[in-house]
Structures are given as structure tokens and as C-alpha cells.
Write a structure and sequence with these properties.
The complex is a heterodimer of chains A (203) and B (343).
Chain A (H helix, E strand, L loop, with lengths): L16 H4 L2 H15 L23 E3 L14 H5 L5 E7 L12 E9 L8 H5 L5 E3 L14 E2 L1 H4 L15 H7 L10 H13 L1
Antiparallel strand pairs in A: 1-4, 2-3, 3-5
Chain B lengths: L1 E5 L2 E5 L5 H12 L25 E6 L12 E2 L9 E4 L4 H14 L17 H9 L16 E3 L3 E3 L9 H8 L6 E4 L6 E4 L12 H5 L5 E3 L12 E6 L10 E7 L2 E7 L13 H6 L7 E5 L14 H15 L20
Parallel strand pairs in B: 1-5
Antiparallel strand pairs in B: 1-2, 3-4, 3-5, 6-7, 7-10, 8-9, 11-12, 11-14, 12-13
Classes of the chains: A alpha+beta (203), B alpha+beta (343).
Chain lengths: 203, 343
Amino acid sequence: MQLTNRKKVVVKKEMSLAEKLYLPAITNGMVITLKHFFKKSATVKYPEVKRELSGTYRGQHVLKRDEQGAERCTACGLCAVACPAEAITMEAGERKKGEENLYREEKYAVIYEINMLRCIFCGLCEEACPKEAIFLTDRIVPTDLKRDEFIYGKDKLVEDIKQPVDVTKRQTQNVLDFKKDKTKGHNQTWADKQKLLSDKKHH
Amino acid sequence: MAKVTIDDITIVVPDGTTILHAARMIDEQHGTNIAPPTMCYYSKLKATGGYCRTCIVNVTQGSEKDPRPMPKPVASCRTTVMDGMVVKNNTSPELLEARAGVVEFLLLNHPLDCPVCDQAGECHLQDLSYENGKEGSRFEFPKREVEPDDLGDKIKLNMNRCILCYRCVKVCDQITDGRVHGVLYRGDHAEISTYIEKAIDNDFSGNVIDVCPVGALTDKTFRFKSRVWFTKPVDAHRNCAHEKCSGKVRLWFKGDDVLRVTARKDRWGEVEEFICNECRFDKKSKHDWEIEGPSIISHHSVINQNHYTLGKLQLGIKNQIKHLNGTKIDLGEGALNPNNIEK
């Protein structure tokens, strides 16, 4: 039974003399190959040469600190629940007295792990974060030979207090303007809050 | 008997029923969602309601005999129905606007520290502001701040989050013997507190945690252990020696660990049966309990984000049973026990 009119009968044609000669075809192929020697290469020699990345490139994550150097993450779990690849796990702990310069909120992440093999770099964690703690950066996750090396803990994720990672180019002007407003609780460090409280007591 | 129409659905209810209860009866019969939200009213406790004003409704016709509308929105938890009454809740845009105003007032001094708060995910104030609130607030002054306090070694009081619904006060008044805590001061300074920091330590005091609609009273044994949507709720029971406690509870598992024990809650977020402190705080091993099966959590709840599909499975089976018009299916002993269902 014929269903369509697209049927084609395959015929094995006899080759002509020019085709049988074999050498012209070889030369044609060599010409194409030689042309590529003089073309610009499509690849770069990473890591010596680095490509220019977009300002919002989604690479390795960073856990930010605030101006005071306190970790912003409060282990609220929204990144983990937003993560479609279930790459993020965390365990929360309570801040003790005297640790206010280390952790911004009463609660903080004791353990925070991202499995970089699971992560698909979609950026939903960054979008879900209510505390501006997690950002994706333009750093590329380095390769490794062992699987467990790809489970990044806080040692690799939290930014170095002396070398903060700049994420301002990922943020819109509206966000940057909002962050200057110190009357909003979101933008107050622990020291700011203490100052406000003492001001209130004096009045 | 009184005939009352709420959001264009008519129901006949006994005299003396409140508008709120009539609306809940409609929801139960028709599967609709017209019952107004409540923050302070609690049907399991006496003399609750009337403080928070979230359950306000518009009465567009007072009764058959006197069809004049009521001039202002009324608190449905405290207003009883009249024969021929016509009530508007979700169908009245100006009422929803008024309720958004109530939510804004409730959130005036609320710190919005949901990322830190243990109640997040099962908080009635979160649900209320999500469903009925506005995005922003017009409040420009510093919020009231009170240091978090301990009520005994098992309960944490965070007064900043309190909306003064008085539910916990009524629990201490009615469920426990010997009232030890109440509301001190007035107006903006009002605070839930114990008498001179006296610990709350009678057998049923833990129930204040369950009735609290916000994160003001939380379980210290569960403090910061896990977000609720990463734990798995399972219904369980045990033979509790306490004569007033039924021993029917909800366990919240993470792996094999019971992170916390709460009372079971019905679809209105109210406790079905109050449980004693021994069940709540001291029985934190799965061997203490006879497990019945996964709890059914509303599919709107973030708790279902735990990928605990057994709950959905059970709900599916229950729905099937409902659709078969009362034909009973025997699922077999322990068919819904999570241990018997393969992953």
C-alpha cells in the first residue's frame, strides 16, 4: 500500500570515466583542506586566552558578604527549593553572641553545598534569593578528576573577605539605587541596626 | 433554620450559625473556596475572634424582613446569619480592597523576616498577605522591636512577629490548667508574656505553638533544624498515658529522623485534637509511633515542594474514592504506609 508520493527508487548508476579516475576527487578534497590553513581559527587557547563573556554570564556561584564582611546567606532554603536540578543542600545554625560580624542574620548556613555536576547554571537560585546572598559570576568552574571535588562547600563558595567578587554589573540600576536607601531594613547591616536602636533609646 | 446566600451560593443553616461557619459549610459541600480567611478566630476554642478583622464580609441584604444592607463590612466570625441574608465576600471588589487594608495594618510592625522564621511555609500571615495583601506598605516609621524571649525551655517567643490574635491566651485559659500567660500593656506596646517570666510548663502548653498563626511562638526543639518544605509530614499515633491526649499527631520527618511533632491540622489550618507536651517534645523517635501514612497537605502549600509524592498519591486515591459516589474500596491493611510503597 502506498501512503505518500514521496517514494524514490534507488538506482546504482555506473560511474563515468572522470569519476573512475579517482585523482581529481582527491585534489578537490586537498584544496578544501588547504584552504582551512589560512582561515582564522574558531577556537581559543583557554586558559591562556579567554573569551569575552557577557555581563550576565552564568558561571560559578559566589556567596556574598555585606559591607561589614558578614555572610548574607541565612539558609532560608529558597535557592534549594527553586533549583530544578536539586544541586543545593544546606544546614542552618543559630548565630551566637559575638558572631554578629560574621553572620548578618540570627540564622546562618553552617553547611552550604552546591553539586557543580548537577548544576545546570540556570540562575534560578540567584533569582530566588531574598537576601542578595548568592550570585552567579563570570568564573568558569574548573575541571577535576574526581566527582567529590565538584561538591563545592562554603570554603569555595563564600567570597574572600579581602577580595570581594564584583556582581554590580549583574544588577539593574533600580536595584543599585534601592541598595543605597539605608532606611530599608534590607540594606541595614547589623552595625546599622544597633546604631538605630541606640539612637531610638536616646530620644 | 436560616437561608443565607454567600457569593451567590445558597445554603440553609441552623439559627445561630455565624456567617463564617456558613461559608465553611458551603466550601465543604460544594468544594468552592469562598470562606473568608481568619487569623484570630479558632473554632476549637471558645470566645475567639473579632480582633484581627481579616474575616470581614459585606452584607448586602440584612434579612428577609429587613432587606437593608449593613453599612460597614462585618466580622463574619462574630456575626450570626439571619434568614434571607445575602453576603458578599470574594465577589465584592471594595471588600477585597478593605481586606488588603487590614493586611497592611497587620503587617505594620511585622518584621518580614520569613527567611529566618521557622513558621515560613505554613504561616497563615504569609498566605494571607500573598492572597489578599498588597505588594508594598506605606508605613515609614521604624518598626517596633522586642528582643526574642524564651517561654520555658521548649517554646520560643518572638514578639516582633506577633499579631495579637489572642489564640495562645485562649489555649492557656481553656486547654491547660492554671493560666500562666496573657497580654501585657496596651495598644502598640501590647506584648504576649508570662507572669514575671514564669515558665510555661503544664501538660498542654505546647499547643500554643500550633494555634499561633504566625511565627511568634515556635518550637525550640525544632529551631532552625529544617525548613518545613524539606521535611515530610506523616500521620501517626501512640497510646498516650495522658487521659486528655488522644496521641494522634503529625510527624515531620527528615530522612529517618523525626524533627518535630505537631497536632494534625484540618483544611482550615486548625488543630483537630490538642496533644500533650510529652507527645510533642519527648517522643522524637520513629519507634515511639505507629505510622498511619503520609499526611494530606493542600496542593497549594509550599510543603508539597518536598517532592513527597506519596502525599499526592494518597490524595489521588482519596479523590477517586470520592468520585465513585460512596462506593467503598478496601485498599488493604497498611496500603498507604510509606514503608510499604516502593520508590
